[in-house]
Write a structure and sequence with these properties.
The chain is an alpha/beta fold. The chain contains eleven helices and nine strands. Helix 3 packs across helix 4 and helix 5 packs antiparallel against helix 8.
Amino acid sequence: MLRTLFAVLLLALGLEAAPPFHTKEGQGPGILFIHGFGGNREVWKEVSAALVRDHTVIRVDLPGSGERPGPALVEGGADFRAIARDLAELVAREGIAPCIVVGHSMGGPIAALAVLEAPERFRGLVLVDSFLTALPVPLVEPILQGLDKDASATLEGFYGSMTAHEAQRDRIVAEALQVPVPVLQAYLKGMIRDPFGSRRTDLKLPVAQFAAGPAESDAVKARARLTQAGLDALPRLRVVPFPKSRHWPMWDEPERFLAELRAFEAGLAIR
C-alpha cells in the first residue's frame, strides 16, 4: 500500500519511479529464479505461473537486462561476485530466506556465488544446464568478435544449436538483442574467469543439475562431463537428465521441469 502511494506521489510530482528489476509473486516458501546470458526474467514466466499458487517466486533481471544499467566490471568482465552479493541482499530484503535459488546457464554460477555470500539465506541450489567453471577462451572469443560485426547473425548462430526449434531461437535472440552489445561482451568476458577456485567444496547445501540431453551411461564419461562443468567437487550433487531438452529444459519439458523442481524441494524437507 505504501509503495503504491509513493509511486502515485512521484507521478503527481512529474517524476518517474525507477523500474523494478524483479518480479515478486505468490505466497509460500521462496524460490529465486536467475536467467542466463542474453535473457531476462521473462524466461521464467511460464514456470513461475505454475508455482505462485503455493510459493513466493522472485524473478530477477540481471544488470544490463530490461532497463537496468550494466554490471560492474572486473578486468573488463562482468563482476559475478558483485551481482551475487546484490541477489543475496535481495533475498533478505524481500523476506524469502531461506529459499531455493535456480540459475539457468550463466545464471548458475551467479546463483552459486550468492549461496557462498550468504549460505544461511539459501536451502537448495538448482543449476539448469549450467556450469561452475570458466568457459574456454576459444569457445567465447569468436562470439565476442562476432557481436562487434553482426550481433543479430552471431546470436542466431550461437543460440541456433541450443534451441529446439526456430520460434524458440527467435524468442531468445530477440531478448538478447535488447541487451547492449558491450553488456553482452562483459558477461562473456566474465564467463572466461573462474570466480570459485577452491570454494566449490564450500557449497554444502543440496545441489541439483538439471542437465539437458540424455543421461551418460558410461560412468567414466559421466564423471568427465561433471569435471568439465566444474561440478565434480560438489559434495551433495544430484544430476537430473532432461533427455528431450536442448539448453532450456523449462521450455522443452515444462511439466517434467516443474515435477523435478518440486521433488527437489520435497527432498530438502527430509534431509
